[in-house]
């Protein structure tokens, strides 16, 4: 079999050849999708309603965003303000970038050394992701030196795309903050574009599918994520204690709540576990924008931030820096993220 770009097959095979991991492979075949996940339609919200002169229509659109964030932790948006032309341009540049040889992606400092593939910390197959990505700090996107000779056209497109995603994230986060009784500005004081990220994902076709994760089950460690995905599918989320597959919508972007928004909202909004399943025959592409706070802003919940003012805080106060450091420590020691439960008051 021809080796993949990147060399995922070699690394996965090394893990499987460890006899103690064979039972993990059998378990993952069941977890990974031999039992098909039920397909779901995420709440679909037309943001055009926010601009309606009818106050009731505008208010109902805002309520739908808040309701989906509480009940699902995920929703889709239409009329989001990002043009089809920009999305198509971003997709073309993304395809060109990932088509580069593995050695060039991994060793030349491309895009601020943001390239990553597989799961370097994996010790068993259930921790392994069949994917590659560029996880790029938004502050580095405009730096011409990050692109090299062959990807100059990517810079302008990605600058425009990141700015559009940032505006959309701020709009949605402002609505969610207002619902909690906070001014929109209070969230903008916490969130800082200097710590936001754009992540370009590629999930190659996988000969071991459906026993492989494209991306292992996780929650997002940010405030808010906006995802632009293609029509291949593979995204699944936990709903009512079972995995459900998200049906792709070519006109919609997907939005999901991150851990920090759940903490900041005192568990009003939900950061939901999700994963990507590998596809045996088709590669999948997506782009995610992560809205993050400044590293030293306090995040922990307070009773005044809850829709129930009399309720007590669920989490102790912590910073984004503390949260990231704790995650890194847990992944190093345990092989997986623990997350918000580390910061509960009780």
CATH architecture call: Sandwich
Q: How many domains make up the coordinates?
A: 1
Which consecutive residue ranges, at least 5 long each, have pLDDT under 50? 303-310
For this structure, the CATH topology is Jelly Rolls
In percent, how helical is the residue content? Answer: 25-40%
Please report the distance between the alpha carbons of the first and last residues: 53 Å
Overall geometric form: globular
Oligomer: single chain
Adjacency order of strands in the biggest sheet: 2-3-11-8-13-6-5-4
In angstroms, what is the radius of gyration? 20 Å
What is the string of SSEs from the N terminus onward? HHEEHEHHHEEHHEEEEEEHEEH
Could you characterize what this model shows?
The chain is 35% helix and 19% strand. The chain has 10 helices and 13 strands. The protein has an 8-stranded mixed β-sheet. The chain has a 5-stranded mixed β-sheet with strand order 1-10-9-12-7, with no helix packed on it. Helix 3 (55-71) packs across helix 7 (152-179). The longest helix is centred in the middle third of the chain and has 28 residues, at 152-179. The radius of gyration is 20 Å and the shape is globular.
């Amino acid at each position: 079999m021809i080796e993949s770009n990147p060399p995922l097959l070699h690394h996965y095979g090394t893990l499987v050849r460890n006899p103690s991991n064979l039972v993990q492979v059998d378990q993952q075949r069941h977890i990974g999708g031999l039992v098909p996940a039920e397909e779901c339609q995420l709440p679909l919200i037309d943001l055009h309603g926010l601009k309606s002169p009818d106050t009731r229509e505008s208010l109902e659109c805002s309520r739908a965003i808040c309701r989906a964030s509480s009940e699902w932790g995920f929703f889709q948006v239409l009329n989001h303000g990002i043009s089809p032309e920009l999305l198509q341009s971003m997709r073309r540049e993304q395809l060109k970038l990932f088509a580069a040889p593995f050695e060039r992606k991994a060793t030349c400092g491309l895009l601020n050394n943001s390239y990553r593939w597989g799961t370097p910390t994996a010790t068993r197959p259930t921790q392994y992701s069949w994917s590659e990505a560029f996880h790029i700090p938004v502050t580095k996107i405009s730096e011409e030196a990050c692109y090299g000779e062959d990807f100059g056209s990517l810079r302008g497109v990605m600058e425009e795309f990141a700015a559009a995603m940032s505006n959309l994230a701020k709009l949605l986060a402002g609505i969610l903050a207002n619902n909690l009784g906070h001014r929109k500005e209070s969230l903008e004081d916490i969130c800082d574009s200097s710590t936001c990220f754009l992540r370009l994902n590629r999930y190659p076709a996988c000969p071991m599918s459906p026993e492989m994760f494209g991306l292992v089950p996780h929650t997002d460690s940010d405030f808010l994520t906006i995802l632009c995905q293609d029509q291949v599918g593979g995204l699944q989320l936990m709903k009512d204690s079972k995995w459900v597959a998200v049906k792709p919508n070519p006109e919609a972007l997907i939005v999901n709540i991150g851990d920090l928004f759940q903490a900041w909202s005192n568990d009003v909004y939900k950061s939901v576990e999700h994963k990507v399943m590998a596809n045996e025959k088709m590669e999948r592409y997506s782009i995610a924008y992560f809205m993050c706070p400044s590293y030293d802003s306090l995040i922990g919940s307070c009773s005044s931030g809850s829709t129930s003012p009399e309720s007590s805080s669920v989490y102790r106060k912590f910073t984004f820096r503390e949260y990231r450091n704790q995650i890194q420590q847990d992944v190093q020691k345990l092989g997986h993220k623990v997350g918000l439960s580390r910061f509960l008051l009780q």
